[in-house]
Every structure is written in C-alpha cells, then in structure tokens.
Design goal:
Structural class of chain A: mainly alpha
Distance between the termini of chain A: 57 Å
CATH superfamily of chain B: Cytochrome c oxidase-like, subunit I domain
Structural class of chain B: mainly alpha
Shape of chain A: elongated
Order of helices and strands of chain A: HHHHHEEH
CATH architecture of chain B: Up-down Bundle
Largest interface: A-B, 75 and 85 residues
Helix content of chain B: over 70%
CATH topology of the largest domain in chain A: Cytochrome Bc1 Complex, Chain D, domain 2
Oligomer: heterodimer
CATH topology of chain B: Cytochrome C Oxidase, Chain A
Strand order of the largest sheet of chain A: 1-2
Helix content of chain A: 25-40%
Shape of chain B: globular
Number of strands of chain B: 0
CATH architecture of the largest domain in chain A: Orthogonal Bundle
Number of domains of chain A: 2
CATH class of chain B: Mainly Alpha
C-alpha cells in the first residue's frame, strides 16, 4: 500500500493535516457560526436593563450555567420549561448559555414560571428553605446579616431557622441584580 | 515497515530525559490538584453545605477541575511523552529541550493563573473548556505552538527516511490544537447561536484532535517497544490517522441535538458519529492485535495492563459516544449525568490509562529507576475499581434522571433519584484520587538520579535541509 510518498515527507503531512482541518473548521464551525450570527433575524427578547445585565454577570461568575440550561427542546419532557427555543431568542446573548447539563431545571422562562422576587431571594440565600431536597449551593456571600433592616434595604424573608438568631437577612447588590436577571428570563411571545 | 522503536540506540540523551520527566512531574502535580478539586465538587452534590465558601462553590470549581485535568494533567503528560517519542523514533536528540522547558513554564503559568482566576469568579461564562480569560488562552496557545515547533524540528532532523506513524499523530495533534483553540476564542462569528455552533465544534474536537492524537501517537511507539514486536498493521495506523482527520471534525454539533442550531449540522454530526467508528476500531483493533500471541509479556509487565485497559476504554467509550448521538438515545440521555460518565470514561478510562502505561513503560528505560511493582499494582487496581465505580454510578444517575424526565415527573424527583448515585460517585472518586497519590509516589521513585545526569547535552544531530 502506498501513501503517495507522504510517509517520507514531514512537510507534506503537516501541510495536508493543517489544510484539511482548517477547511473542515471553516465548513463545520466558522461558516455556520457566521450564518447564525448574520441570519438569525431581529432579536425577539426585550433588551435587559442595567441591573439585570449586572445580574447576568453574577450568573456567569458563579457558573450557574453548568447546572442550569437555557434551552427548551421541542420534546414533551421540556414542555414545563416553556416553548421550544429559537435562534432569535439568543441574538442579544453574549455568550448564549444553552448549556449541556440539567442538574437543576431549565431557566429559559423561569421569570414567567417563578415571578416572586422574595422566593428567589430566599432560594439564593438558603435553597433548602424552599426546596428541602435541593442540592444547589447557597449564595450567602451575596447577603448581609443585619440586626435591623434600613429603610432602603431589600429583605430576604427567610424562615427563622435559616438565619442566625436575631438577624435580618438583607440582599446585597449582587443578590438583587441576580434576582432581577432571573426575573428577566422570560421567553418572548412568538407566532407559531 | 520497520518499527524504529525496536532498533533505537540504547544511549539516552539526558536533556531530553530531564525535560520529559519535568513535563510528567508537573502533569502529576496538576492531576493531584485537579482531581482533588473534582472530588470536592462531587461531595457537594450529596452534601451541599460542604466547604460553603464562594471560591469553592460548585459553579467555580467545576471549570477549575476540568481545565486542570484537561489542560494540566492530560496535556502535559502527553506532551512530555510525545517529545520523547518524536526524539526516539527520529533517532536524534530533541531539537531544543531548552525551548520545551520555556513552553512548560508557560503552561504552568497559564494553569496556575487559570485556577486562581476561575476560583475568584473571573471567567467567560459557562463555555466548557474555554472558560479562561483570553490573555491566559494566548499564553497557552503560545506554549502549544512552541512544543509543536520543537516536535516538528526534531522530526525534520530525523536520520531515517520514513516519518514513523507515531509522529503523524503527534504532529497532527500539534497542528490541530492551535487552530481549534484560536477558533474557539476569536469573537467575530460568535454572536448569538454562532457561539453555540463553535462550542460544539470546540469541545468535541479537543478530545479527538488533541488528546486522542497524542495518546495514539505515544501508543504506536510504546506498545511495540514494550512487546518487542512490530505493530500489527502499519497501514491501519495510517488509515486511522486520515479517517480521524476527515470524520472527527464533522461531529461536534452532536452536543446540541434538538437545539435551534441548524438541523443539517446536527444530522451531519450524527452521521459522522457513526463514521468515527472507522478510526476508532482501526486504532483499537490494530493496537490490541499487536498483543496477539504475547500474553507472556502482558503478564510480566506492569505497564502493559494500563495500555490494554486504555485501549478497551478507547473502543468502548467512543462507541458509547456514537450511540449517545442518535436522536432516540439523546432524548433519554442528553442533559443528564450520563454525559459526565461518558467524558470520564473517555478521558480517564482511555487517555489517562494510556498515559500511565507509557509513563510506567518508558520512564524506567530513561532514568534507570523503577517503582515497586506492588505500588504500581495498587495504583492500577485503585484507579480501575475507582473509575468503574465512578462511571457506573454516574451513568446510572443519568439514566434515572432521563427516565424521570421522560415520565413527566416533577424536576426534583430526578435529583432525589440521582442522589444515592452521587454518593457512590464520590466513593469511586476517592479511590481514583487515592490511586493518584500512589502514582505520584511512583513517579518520584522513577526520578532521574542527579549523579547520572551528565553536564551539557551534546548538540542535536541535524540533517542537511
């Protein structure tokens, strides 16, 4: 069997490998990506306000997307999470966080499913206070323990056995921003 | 075709030996750190209040674990072995051990900075295996390019006419990874779903076009060398190289089946996931058949059992990946922990076992020092029982999750059903980390004797251009 003289020519092996892999990269990654970027159509989601955008940064910092997808498939089991996701859902997302794991539920439409700010604050401070079997990390470092809440404080109404005795749990700026972001996760209405 | 490994001169060039050993040692350090972090992440899934600190929360240590075991352990150990293999099979000393050492410190700097930044929460979002901030990616890419250049110049200076098949795979890997890595970081086509298309391409090819390339390249040298016989079929090795190059880059989108990325891209990915069986079984079969009639060598060697395990891991984990790509299987398995089991099966049951086989098979020949066979046996069995426990537990968790979802149960049911399996996964992980401590002690036992290292290495032999 002959390999066209390649087996004695290291330059040719490297050149062919680079060219073939680069062409396949173009065809399977760069060009389809460009096409998605250019032709997905106008965004259907409402742009986020500044606080929700900061909340998205917190969501990224904490790696929430490693356990929560934002991507609803056209499958019966995904119905509880919203309508099937479309390319236009992601036009404004940088990066989009479709995800590959659901250790926790999908969040593409969580703002519709769970619109309560108080619930989200409690859940972030002590997930097991609202879902006893949850394995989500508690994000207590985004909350402040106070003896008494001030006039502008956003209080997380956690159950008495979750907070240290005699303390009030106040949402820090990141916690408030993160909740604003979660509430902003609402799938836009589309005609079928 | 003659196997140059069999006729290589027994003289050992100490500069190559030392730089190879440094790569292996640093790889081992990152293995210990990376898998300890992985163990902490595993514990957190059944004990969420374990170590409740921001820097150690699950979402931050998950990318720290993956980046250290992929870019730290697996890459460094395979690069170190590859540099040795290109030198031996070309029958020249490594082109520039000094440059290879510069690259090693770039790797180490990027890995340490990557660890610190990820734990501090500085990342690019949940984009798997490309979470590092871009300046660190630039440093890593520079390290890969330098290592690749050293390997290329060494092969270019070979004293044999043929480029041995190991070097096809190794040079291939060094060509593909920079293209892959740069493509994954450049932003010009990554708005909206463009990013997702690139994500599928990147995370899949990192496996097949980098780790698989180097692991096979090292195997095609080490297995014939240890068995003292040529590989079963040289032509099959070359066929595997080309079919891997043609099929593998087409299948990244199978990580986003049923997603809004174009349907043709998903279908192409599924089709070539089947095509991938050609290089996979060509490689597995070819290397396993090399053992035919050599069961005596297998029983005497403490390195070869790692290779046999790794090769079986290669065939089985790749076949499992192909099955997961089918839409019907994907309905039950996607988004579940089954994927985590698959990636550990491949990166550990295949790549890591091959790397260990090569370390135990080659390093004593370089340094003249052997670990105790008993300690190697303890390492082997702890690692094998550990990874089997891990993979079976987490795959079962995945199947339970998938069944709960398909049955339309409330989401928390899938958490409750998976939780006992998460505990078993931790037990498996504990055995794996334990085996790594034994491995680290064995690496230490194989270290080059300082007295045996002669002063400056001779000038590399260069062929006229």
């Amino acid at each position: 069997m002959s390999f066209g003289g390649l087996h004695t020519d290291h330059r040719a092996i490297v050149a062919v490998a680079v060219i073939v892999f680069f062409v396949l990269t173009l065809v399977m990654a760069i060009l389809p990506a460009l096409r998605e970027q250019a032709f997905s159509g106008p965004p259907i989601a409402t742009p986020r306000d500044e606080v929700a955008a900061r909340g998205r940064q917190v969501y990224m910092r904490e790696g929430c997307g490693f356990c929560h997808t934002q991507f609803v498939r056209d499958l019966p089991m995904d119905r509880p999470y919203g309508r099937p996701s479309r390319p236009r859902d992601y036009v404004l997302e940088d990066p989009p966080m479709l995800g590959t794991q659901r250790t926790g539920p999908d969040l593409a439409d969580v703002g519709t499913r769970q619109p309560s700010e108080a619930w989200h604050l409690i859940h972030l401070y002590d997930p097991r206070a609202v879902v006893p079997q949850s394995v989500m990390p508690a994000y207590r470092w985004y909350f402040i323990e106070k003896n008494q809440a001030g006039p502008d404080d956003v209080v997380a109404p956690v159950p008495a056995n979750s907070a240290p005795p005699g303390k009030v749990i106040v949402a820090g700026p990141e916690a408030s921003a993160l909740v604003r972001y979660l509430l902003s996760l609402k799938q836009a209405k589309v005609s079928p | 075709m003659r196997d140059p490994g069999l006729t290589a001169s027994p003289s050992v060039d100490h500069a190559t030996v030392r730089v190879t050993f440094e790569y292996l040692s640093w790889g081992t350090v990152w293995l210990l750190v990376g898998t300890t972090i992985g163990l902490v992440a595993s514990i957190k899934l059944h004990w969420p209040e374990f170590l409740p600190f921001a820097q150690l929360s699950f979402g931050r240590i998950r990318p720290a674990h993956t980046s250290l075991v992929l870019l730290g352990w697996s890459s460094l150990v395979l690069v170190g072995l590859s540099l040795y293999v290109v030198s031996r099979t070309s029958r020249v000393t490594l082109w520039s051990p000094r440059l290879a050492r510069v690259a090693l410190w770039l790797w180490n700097f990027a890995l340490l900075a990557g660890l610190v930044t990820l734990l501090a929460g500085a990342n690019r979002g949940p984009q798997e295996y490309r979470e590092w901030l871009w300046p660190l990616a630039v440093i890593l890419a520079a390290a890969v390019l330098i290592d690749g250049y050293v390997a290329y110049r060494t092969v270019a200076a070979r004293t044999l006419p043929e480029v041995y098949v190991s070097n096809w795979y190794i040079l291939g890997g060094f060509c593909y990874l920079p293209i892959l890595y740069v493509t994954s970081y450049l932003p010009f086509y990554q708005a909206g779903l463009g990013n997702t298309v690139v994500q599928g391409y990147y995370m899949h090819n990192a496996m097949g076009m980098w780790f698989t390339q180097l692991a096979l390249g090292v195997s095609y040298y080490a297995i014939p060398r240890l068995l003292g016989r040529p590989i079963y079929s040289y032509a099959l090795g070359v066929l595997g190289f080309w079919t891997n190059l043609l099929f593998y880059p087409l299948i990244g989108a199978h990580h986003f089946i049923f997603s809004p990325v174009p349907w043709w891209l998903q279908s192409t990915a599924i089709l070539f996931s089947v095509g991938m069986m050609v290089p996979v079984w060509a490689g597995t079969g070819n290397l396993l058949l090399t053992f035919k009639g050599a069961s005596g060598a297998l029983q005497r060697s403490y390195a070869l059992p790692f290779f046999v395990t790794g090769l079986i891991g290669y065939g089985l984990s790749s076949t499992q990946g192909t099955i997961e790509a089918f839409r019907t299987a994907n309905i039950y398995l996607h988004f579940t922990n089954f994927t985590v089991g698959h990636s550990h099966f491949a990166m550990y049951g295949f790549i890591t076992f091959i790397a260990w086989g090569a370390v135990y098979g080659l390093v004593p020949r370089l340094t003249g020092r052997e670990p105790s066979p008993l300690a190697v046996g303890v390492h082997f069995w702890l690692a094998l029982v550990g990874v089997l426990t891990y993979v079976i537990a987490i795959s079962t968790a995945g199947i339970l999750q998938g069944l709960a979802w398909v049955a339309g149960q409330s989401f928390i049911v899938s958490v409750i059903e998976a939780e006992p399996m998460w505990l078993w996964r931790t037990i498996g992980g504990l055995l794996m980390v334990g085996s790594h401590i034994v491995f680290a002690a064995n690496v230490w036992a194989m270290r080059p004797l300082p007295a045996a290292v002669p002063s400056p290495s001779p000038e590399p032999v260069r062929m006229p251009a």
